[in-house]
Amino acid sequence: MDVDINDGKDRIGPLFRDRHVLITGGTGFMGKALVEKLLRNTEIAKIYLLVRTKKGKSPKQRLEDVFSNPLFSQVIELRGLNTLLAQCVVIAGDVTEPELGISENDRKLITENVSIIYHCAATIRFDEALRKAVLLNTRGTKLMINLAKQCKKLDMFGYISTSYCHLNEKLLLEKPYPPPADPHKVIKAVEWLDDDVVDGITSKILGECPNTYAYTKALAEALVVESMKDIPAVIFRPSIVIPTWREPLAGWTDNINGPVGLLIGAGKGVIRTMYCNSTGYGDYLPVDFGVSAICVGTWNYIGRKDFARNIFHLVSSAEIKISWEGIIDLGKSIVANKVPLNGVFWYPGGTMKKYRWQQNLAAFFFHWVPAVLIDCLLYVLGYKPVLCRVHRRIAKGFEVFEYYANNQWDFDNAGINHLRDQINDAEKVKFKIDAGGVEINDYFENCIWGARRFILKETDDTLPSARRHMKVMWFVDKICKAIIYGAFFYYVGMWIYNRVFASAY
Questions:
Q1: Cα dist. 357→31, 271, 365 in Å?
Q2: Is residue 270 a contact partner of residue 394, using CB atoms and an 8 Å limit?
Q3: Is the pTM above the cut of 0.85?
């Protein structure tokens, strides 16, 4: 019997009591946050983590690395590291391998015990080779669905998709959409064809789809929708996942995807110009909101048996809209005045360009010319040139970013609004899925603090020197502008004088 939503008892955490959950992608950004949330805020019995060997580290070593992340410091202090390690079981495997690369014993362990699966594993690189993206994002999902069908106690298969996988839809509804191709045929094609053949026909296969990420995630969604007649499946579509709002630490992140990379680039003075619709906006999701929504959606599906709602948009733009220009201006202000970064190349500045020719011209003068000059100076001084390499990476990243920055999408989130009405006050605090209390300025300041501490590894004791350096960069910026503008007006004045006044004599 359902508990009255106003009695203040948490019903979401206890739903996981005695349950065994399998998570793929648990070493990734959202996967880490989901593991931490389940350990800290639910009564989960076991978490099985499908982990592959990477860079010479075994799956067990990679799990130990995950728990060494600052994200887990609070739950380790509460529960103890040994307890958490005993609660998490590493399953050696790889979603790109046939049969997921799982041993028979591990497969039996999963199929006889697991009741919830969260499939988070994916390559999020937009420029990933099509073959690799299909094998990981699409075939990997197919193999996970096959495993789910064998689980004797399965109550829910949760697929972590993306709200940006049906880009032909300017208003995305919480419903299935037809895939750009038959996912089964695409999988067979990349399995049989050589890499160079697949690479050669990638653009033809993608058609109007701008990148392999959106294409392969759309195919994977179709497989999950197809499986709904056989297994209990739910699709979660998060938007651009960004640092934590508050839980368990404000501003935590482990990557520079999305606006965080822009803030760092602009804050370091490296990014001075972008081709972007300055009034447009992206849709962002703090990762702690995202994993809370997954937990609440799981409770709604299993606990409330609301099987009709099986696609959820985890988005924010229906409530909070901040333009690309607003983010950059806010970031420049915070870095210049509150949280400066170390080793700034130039005082934060620059603008967004409305036209491609403006961007190309500005990039030449404000990106490439300074990069070449500084790298030449570094070479002469005996240091390794770095800035041209950085700008090549930035230019490559802009190729993907510009498509999203110059187009606009909106998302219906009726499902999440429904969930908000089903949870009580205690659950709304423990599993926050609304924007109440979010102050944009404070949030992005915390994002920059997080980038400084967790990505750039810049300790707080370096802040005074960073502030001094920023003041020097401000002074240099003003001097250089004065020289440039002075030279410009001098030569324009001399040209006018020679053409108008000198000719009179």
A1: 41, 17, 13
A2: yes
A3: yes
